[in-house]
């Protein structure tokens, strides 16, 4: 049986959990059983039992919903991020060899976020950071966020770009319609399509900003088979090449060299075939999206039964993650 490491797995401590979705959202992103998800997010004992039952050797865990991510007071945001990162280390250490983690950052203050990234990696042994959505309505290609990327390159750790809920204005304009319910519109605007499209735009903007020319050794991770970008690599090359730009290389060159994509529980052959065709097995990681998705036997079985070479299977299942996150 192939060793399996999954890398988009989430936690949230009960004291930090939102009680319900925002008033303007008609669907709960925690799915059909939000109480179960809320319980599993913070219960490490049940998490390990689940991993043992379904053949998952290690999870790389992260928190896309920590209050530090949306706190507008910089001092309080730093305090909250440090509390989460410190508590996480204590909990992981109870289960040696089963977990690695990505840091929570106080994004309201990018300079402080870079400092916390350094502390979390060098002092706490965390393996990078996760940034969810568009912080405070700002895409990450804006210059104030450069210190975070500079620090990630300096430390040689990746940053996982995770979806977040698009704004109400985006959802109202693009996804809601009088021809179907607001609940359908909000599902299309979130997990169905919208937050993936927005995160793909995030990646597109970062590459076109020249980020990887500034920081050529920086590594970014994109879930859900690349949030739609891999299907458009050739078209992006063609049309961005028609206009003057400041990039030193083609769009796809940066994407294939500096970006890793994960399955995020989308265990479907067409998406896997496309991801492998565009990226190669050396830039694909395995992920379930626990506990928002509970794929159970599929986590290991889909990969073990996939029509790929044994070498590629090992790369995707664990070798790429071990190298990228320095898990050995």
Task: Outline the structure in words.
- There is one protein chain.
- The chain is α/β, with parallel strands linked by helices and 328 residues long.
- The chain has a domain at 1-62 and 263-328.
- The chain has helices spanning 34-42, 44-53, 74-92, 110-122, 146-155, 168-174, 182-192, 194-208, 211-214, 224-227, 233-240, 251-258, 269-279, 298-305, 310-324, and strands spanning 5-10, 58-62, 99-101, 129-132, 159-162, 220-222, 259-262, 284-285.
- The strands form 2 sheets. Strands 4-5-6-7-8 form a 5-stranded parallel sheet. Strands 1-2-3 form a 3-stranded parallel sheet.
- Helix 4 runs parallel beside helix 5 (146-155) and helix 6 packs across helix 7 (182-192).
- The two termini are 19 Å apart.
- The model has no long low-confidence stretch (mean pLDDT 95).
- Pfam families: Amidohydro_2.
- This is O-pyrocatechuate decarboxylase.
């Amino acid at each position: 049986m192939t060793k399996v490491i999954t890398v988009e797995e989430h936690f949230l401590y009960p004291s930090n959990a939102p009680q319900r979705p925002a008033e303007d959202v008609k669907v709960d992103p925690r799915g059909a059983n939000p109480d179960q998800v809320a319980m599993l997010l913070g219960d490490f004992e049940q998490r390990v039992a689940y991993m043992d039952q379904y053949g998952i050797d290690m999870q790389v865990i992260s928190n896309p919903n920590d209050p530090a991510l949306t706190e507008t007071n910089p001092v309080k945001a730093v305090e909250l991020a440090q509390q989460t990162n410190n508590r996480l280390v204590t909990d992981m250490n109870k289960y040696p060899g089963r977990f690695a983690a990505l840091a929570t950052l106080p994004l309201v203050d990018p300079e402080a976020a870079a400092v916390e990234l350094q502390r979390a990696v060098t002092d706490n042994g965390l393996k990078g950071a996760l940034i969810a959505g568009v912080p405070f309505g700002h895409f990450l290609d804006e210059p104030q966020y450069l210190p975070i990327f500079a620090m990630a390159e300096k430390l040689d750790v990746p940053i996982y770009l995770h979806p977040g809920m698009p704004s109400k204005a985006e959802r109202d304009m693009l996804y809601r319609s009088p021809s179907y319910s607001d609940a359908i519109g909000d599902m299309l605007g979130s997990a169905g399509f919208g937050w993936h499209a927005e995160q793909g735009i995030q990646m597109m903007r970062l590459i076109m900003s020249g980020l990887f020319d500034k920081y050529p050794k920086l590594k970014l991770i994109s879930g859900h088979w690349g949030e739609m970008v891999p299907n458009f690599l050739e078209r992006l090359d063609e049309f961005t090449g028609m206009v003057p730009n400041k990039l030193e290389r083609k769009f796809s060159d940066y994407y294939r060299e500096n970006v890793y994509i994960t399955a995020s529980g989308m265990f479907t052959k067409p998406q896997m075939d496309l991801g492998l065709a565009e990226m190669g097995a050396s830039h694909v990681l395995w992920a379930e999206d626990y506990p928002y998705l509970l794929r159970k036997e599929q986590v290991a079985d889909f990969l073990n039964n996939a029509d790929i070479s044994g070498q590629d299977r090992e790369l995707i299942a664990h070798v790429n993650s071990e190298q990228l996150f320095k898990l050995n």
